[in-house]
Specification:
There is one protein chain. The protein has 19 helices and 14 strands. It has 462 residues and is α/β, with parallel strands linked by helices. It has three domains: 226 residues, NAD(P)-binding Rossmann-like Domain (Rossmann fold); 88 residues, N-(1-d-carboxylethyl)-l-norvaline Dehydrogenase, domain 2 (Orthogonal Bundle); 134 residues, 3-Layer(aba) Sandwich (Rossmann fold). The strands form three sheets. The protein has a six-stranded parallel β-sheet with strand order 3-2-1-4-5-6, with helices on both faces. The protein has a six-stranded parallel β-sheet with strand order 11-10-9-12-13-14. The chain is elongated, with a radius of gyration of 25 Å. The structure holds uridine-5'-diphosphate-xylopyranose. Belongs to the UDP-glucose/GDP-mannose dehydrogenase family.
Length: 462
């Protein structure tokens, strides 16, 4: 099928590349010309395992193109994905101005054939109908311009208005495993009120439903959940809010464990084996960050508020998460007492491993508070240190490896659970520290091994 993906951020680029890999003809559109040039040259603007390789093979096979020309993309696609950002406004609402601009642009360039316009961006509930209206506006503006230019309206122009449908198709991929998640989905959600549009979306995703590109091809087909527009939009918010609340829940349990002397890792195992609870997303630590959970939970709280409902549970999940970010700071103060003049080394900076994303990363709050208390902060992160980019970070010295980080530190804090931290030479690191103390902010390290290497080990809730 002919696909156009508008917006080559995380979701858009991964979607475009993966759809081209399963056999579709994809054009990705972005208004950032420099980014388009980079992608045309075969380079991925984001770090995501496996993505560059697929980008290269699809481009070589002629299945994937990049352009800044929206008209070209709209003309090409039978299915048009809107995948631009909906960043949070200071109020917690989503900023939908990019979605609006794209929808208007689509309207301005729609040609004769039937098209499905897919909302892939995480948009406020009710946006499906709103997008339809904006597209119609875009068409009307074009028609007006044609009349003003003296061209009159052709039959083609008159017909466009009824020749598209809007579908909501939320995205559940995780950063760092986005390609894997796309080929191995738990479910595909399609919201809309047009049978024709839903049928086209089902055809588009058939290779994924059949698991033709999945790791385990023997599993039954991927469930496709077909709903109305608003329910599909709500599924995205509810899924992310549930997962964020689940993490806040286990973090609260961890804080109680700390006080009563229980071990949250054992508790998580014990409760996670109950199939009604499930073992995933029960890892206590520094709390959730990134581009999705904070934004989506706030947006759902805001929507509830707009409709006169006080979403107390979700608000509590946010409060617990804010407090959790500074749990390692409390532990540092407990161990070192005065932090002024002490040197603290952070292992990891990104909000989670296998990504270069620093958006809403717990490390940022920790750095700010350590600086405020007069501590010197150093950090080593496998991606941030390598990329040579400081990611706009201030108040922190970036070291190029873990041993240099440990040198002269009074304490280390493991902030991100990068796999490579499991293989560090802790014996060597302990020797170059002022005091070999480590706060494991993700309960990630082998406690015994680290202690054997000479460290005093402090975890979260254990
Ligand atoms: C999330 C959702 O998982 C995904 O479905 C959605 O499409 C986008 O948002 P992502 O933000 O990439 O994906 O990261 P995820 O792996 O879900 O982790 C989110 C945060 O929760 C991270 O900060 C992570 O460190 C934290 N986390 C996760 C925990 O603290 N404990 C856990 O048990 C799991």
């Amino acid at each position: 099928m002919r696909v156009c993906v508008i917006g080559t951020g995380y979701v858009g680029l991964v979607t475009g590349v993966c759809l081209s890999h399963i056999g579709h003809d994809v054009i990705c559109v972005d208004n950032n010309e420099e980014k388009v040039k980079l992608m045309q040259a075969g380079q991925s603007p984001i770090y995501e395992p496996g993505l560059s390789e697929l980008m290269k093979s699809s481009s070589e096979a002629g299945k994937l193109q990049f352009t800044s020309d929206l008209a070209k993309g709209v003309e090409h696609g039978e299915i048009l994905f809107i995948a631009v950002g909906t960043p949070p406004l200071p109020t917690g609402e989503s900023d939908t101005r990019y979605v609006e601009a794209v929808a208007r642009g689509i309207g301005a360039h729609l040609n004769g054939g039937y098209k499905v316009i897919v909302n892939k961006s995480t948009v406020p509930i009710g946006s499906g109908d709103w997008v339809r209206m904006i597209v119609l506006d875009g068409i009307a503006e074009r028609q007006k311009a044609l009349v003003t230019a003296g061209g009159g309206i052709s039959t083609l122009e008159e017909n466009i208005g009824g020749n598209f449908d809007v579908v909501s198709n939320p995205e559940f991929l995780r950063e760092g495993s986005a390609v894997y998640d796309t080929f191995n989905p738990d479910r595909i959600v399609l919201g809309g009120n047009s049978d024709r549009a839903i049928a086209m979306m089902q055809e588009l995703y058939q290779p994924l439903v059949d698991r033709s590109f999945a790791e385990d091809k023997s599993l039954p087909p991927v469930p496709v959940v077909v709903t109305d527009l608003s329910s599909a939009e709500m599924i995205k918010y509810a899924a992310n809010s549930f997962l964020a609340t689940k993490i806040s829940f286990i973090n609260e349990v961890a804080n109680i464990c700390d006080r009563v002397g229980a071990d949250v890792t054992q508790v998580a195992k014990g409760i996670g084996l109950d199939s009604r609870i499930g073992s995933k997303f029960l890892q206590a630590g520094l709390g959730w960050g990134g581009s999705c959970f904070p934004k989506d939970v706030s947006a759902l709280i805001h929507t509830a508020d707009d409709y006169g409902y006080d979403a107390e549970l979700l608000k509590a999940a946010v409060t617990v998460n804010q407090r959790q970010r500074l749990v390692t700071l409390e532990k540092l103060q407990h161990e070192l007492k005065i932090l002024k003049g002490k040197t603290v080394g952070l292992l990891g900076l990104t909000f989670k491993p296998d990504t270069d994303d620093m958006r809403d990363a717990p490390a940022l709050n920790l750095i700010e508070q350590l600086n405020r208390l007069g501590a010197k902060v150093k950090a080593y992160d496998p991606i941030v240190s390598q990329s040579g980019l400081s990611h706009g970070l201030s108040g922190v010295i970036i070291e190029s490896n873990a041993e240099m980080l440990a040198d002269g530190c009074d304490a280390l804090v493991l902030v991100t659970d990068w796999q490579e931290f499991l293989k560090l030479d802790f014996t060597k690191m302990a020797k170059v520290m002022i005091q070999p103390l480590i706060i494991d902010g993700r309960n990630f390290l082998d406690r015994q091994a680290v202690q054997d290497a000479g460290f005093r080990y402090v975890g979260i809730g254990r």
